[in-house]
Amino acid sequence: MAKLSPFEKRRQRVRTKLIAHGGGKPRLSIHRSGQHIYAQVIDDAAGKTVCAASSLEKDVRSASGANVAAATVVGKAVAERARAAGVSRVVFDRGGFIFHGRVKALADAAREAGLEF
Hints:
38% of the residues lie in helices and 20% in strands.
């Protein structure tokens, strides 16, 4: 088995705790790259993605996808799409990323738009 990076170890640790304590709720999973930010609501029981949003989409795109403003827009968009799909409660999967900056902005915007976590 290949040795995991510290990031991958954090990601596995976070996800293991979410699945154990999530109570069967869908998971709001995020990924942050140097250029963009991505979010998707995943129903692990069914193995399906309920909805998704990213800073690459035309209706979400701003001047830069790598700032707090773009993360806020993506958070609002994914929350609205999740509500439209009938999902109001999720667990927040930050992956291996620290809950700070763009990750926190996305989470706060999703909460303001009506998602509960």
